[in-house]
Specification:
The protein is an all-beta fold. The chain has one helix and 30 strands. Strand 27 and strand 28 form a beta hairpin. The structure holds beta-D-fructofuranose. The site of beta-D-fructofuranose (FRU) has 14 residues, from strand 1, strand 5, strand 9, strand 13 and strand 17. Beta-D-fructofuranose (FRU) binds next to strand 1, strand 5, strand 9, strand 13 and strand 17.
Length: 492
């Protein structure tokens, strides 16, 4: 049975989505069918395809009562739009179907687990809910909500209790969810269940203890290359160092399990050090890859970010393959992107001093690798999405090993300074950058993906210049491909 709210959302998105031409959207980053998108939700394999949902307010380009938008793909890059999957249509989720996850059941159904949000006399009440379906239509369980404030540890708060990430291990189901603990800061709670309806609190996996921000949103927990990894998105982080961002941040907590199965924290690092990244979620692919997708937007005051007249707002990042190397999280664009690479142009040992442009090196949809070698202290600046007065810049200072991403002059709709400087590992003046440029974004993978910086860009597409500037002496190798959709659209 489809509710009136869902029927209305589906009719609206079908009508409005048809008014947006492919050229008005990114080439390969996911955007909402119409209106507003935030977190990725329900990233999962189901019946041989990848499904991806997202926090969705179809009726405007601002956040509003949350629905789940829906799409699926065979290659993680070309997404087929499907009708909205969830609408806030039940007493327990009437003020929003908040973030959550998905899994395939042993008997072949697609299970969604999400946070039902309702306001009672102005107070938030958040609880975890389930819906089952066939990859297009989903029915909410009559047992909903299945985890409520009554299953919180003492001091926990049902006002901030959300974003369940679900998985199955053996014959049991597990889920982690974010909560605000008695000390006013975040923790990640682990639950388990045999039948999906009765859930047991196993304990807290880790907590902020007011050291790592306040509420912890969108937890994810998985093992990778022999380690256990907890991803969390804290609010109100007071950055403990220049590698972290104040406010909303995403943390990778690397650890191991002790003999009692308890998570022991070993290190904490930022996941993405750019200007736009939050609330990521991972999926384990059938071939064993752990792939992460994030919301490519700074949470904050997004209304001033929406370019005038734009009918969609919000993008997801590229899917990124994760691994652990030398105790660090390594990210790289999914290898499926290689099928999109066209027209290779390459240069070797290009001497840099002063300003330079290179024949064949321009464009707004590119996969470009630069291996830079600085001779002594100096500053190297790469400008892209450039025309007479607009550009976005990446600037490397080889002495102090600092990398700056600066889109202050990108023609951004808000008149603000948009710049971030982060330390990079000292490699004796060498730096490797891989830039993935899409029409409205850049993702920068540094030194083989040991750091990543993502940012949205709303510079008009005509600004497609690329230039290189050096103070001091340096040389570089460069390889660039134009990115274009593969010609053969095999939908199987
Ligand atoms: C993170 C978040 C989640 C919540 C959702 C609501 O961006 O605040 O915690 O479920 O967005 O849209």
């Amino acid at each position: 049975m489809i509710s009136e709210q869902l029927r209305r959302a589906r009719a609206y998105e079908a009508r409005m989505g048809a008014l947006i031409s492919p050229a008005e959207r990114p080439l390969f980053h996911l955007t909402p069918t119409t209106g507003w998108l935030n977190d990725p939700n329900g990233f999962s394999g189901y019946r041989g395809e990848y499904h991806l949902f997202y926090q969705y307010h179809p009726y405007s380009t601002s956040w509003g009562p949350m629905h789940w938008g829906h799409c699926k793909s065979r290659d993680l890059l070309r997404w087929e739009r499907l009708p909205a999957a969830l609408a806030p249509d039940q007493p327990y989720d009437r003020d929003g179907c908040f973030s959550g996850s998905a899994a395939e059941t042993p008997d072949g159904r697609h299970l969604l687990m999400y946070t039902g949000r309702r306001l009672e006399e102005g107070r938030e009440v958040q609880a975890q809910c389930l819906a089952v379906g066939n990859g297009e239509n989903y029915e909410k369980l009559s047992a909903n909500p299945v985890i409520t404030g009554e299953q919180l540890p003492p001091g926990g708060s049902a006002q901030d209790f959300r974003d369940p990430k679900l998985w199955r291990d053996g014959s049991r189901w597990y889920a982690v969810a974010g909560n605000r603990a008695g000390d006013g800061s975040g923790e990640v709670l682990l639950y388990s269940s045999e039948d999906l309806e009765r859930w047991r609190l196993e304990g807290a996996l880790d907590r902020s203890a007011n050291q790592w921000g306040k509420m912890w949103e969108c937890p994810d927990f998985f093992s990778l290359d022999g380690q256990s990894i907890l991803l969390v998105s804290p609010q109100e982080l007071e950055a403990p160092g220049p590698e972290f961002h104040n406010g909303q941040e995403v943390l990778c907590i690397l650890g191991g399990l002790d003999s009692g199965g308890r998570f022991i924290r070993q290190s904490i690092s930022p996941v993405d050090q750019g200007l736009d990244f939050y609330a990521p979620q991972t999926a384990l692919l059938p071939d064993g890859r752990r792939v992460m997708i994030g919301w490519m937007q700074a949470a904050g005051e997004p209304s001033c970010y929406v370019p005038k007249g734009q009918k969609w707002f919000g993008q997801l990042t590229l899917p990124r393959e994760l691994s652990v190397r030398d105790g660090r999280l390594i990210q790289s664009p999914v290898r499926e992107l290689e099928a999109w690479r066209k027209e290779r142009v390459s240069y070797e040992n290009v001497p840099l001093s002063g300003s330079l442009t290179l024949p064949g090196v321009s464009g707004r949809t590119l996969d470009m690798k630069i291996a830079l070698r600085c001779r002594g202290d100096g500053t190297f600046t790469l400008k892209f999405a450039q025309d007479g007065h607009r550009f976005t810049a990446l600037c490397f200072q080889s002495g102090p090993n600092l990398l700056t991403l600066d889109r202050t002059y990108s023609g951004f709709p808000c008149n603000l300074v948009h710049r971030r400087t982060v330390p990079v590992r000292d490699r004796a003046g060498e730096l490797e950058l891989r830039l993935i440029l899409d029409r409205f974004s850049v993702e920068v993978f540094v030194n083989g993906g040991e750091q990543v910086l993502s940012a949205t860009l709303y510079t008009p597409q005509e600004a497609d210049g690329i230039s290189f500037h050096a103070q001091g002496r340096a040389e570089m190798d460069l390889e660039r491909y134009r990115l274009a959709e593969p010609a053969c659209q095999d939908r199987g």
